[in-house]
Amino acid sequence: MPVFYVCAGLLGLLAVSLTVSVGRMRMQKKIYLGDGGDKELLAAIRAHGNFMEYVPLCLVLIYFVSDFYGYWYTAIMAVVLLLARVLHAGGILGFIPLGRTIGAAGTTILLVVASALIIYSGFNLKQY
User: Where are the transmembrane segments (predicted)?
Assistant: First the structure.
């Protein structure tokens, strides 16, 4: 499970980076509320917002998967989430061509797989 914790920590640092990026851009552009119609600021806000919308749920689901499927499932899913979110943020911010598409697809596929594994495990739990 150490891979999960390392990836979770790196995702936390990515969250901080996206937060600081929005704050810095707001100060530079003197836009303190909303996006002021600025496309660059809007992209930074959405990169941060989308990250915050998906990453917590994905991390919780991966953590649940670890209870039933062990190290390799957890490690692979954590790495996929980290790569997907880096690609997505880089794509929205214009650093990685096709990053947004690949990152969004990776995150969505991970959500589906993790959710399906948890549902399957839930049906197979034995009650006392």
Answer: 102-123
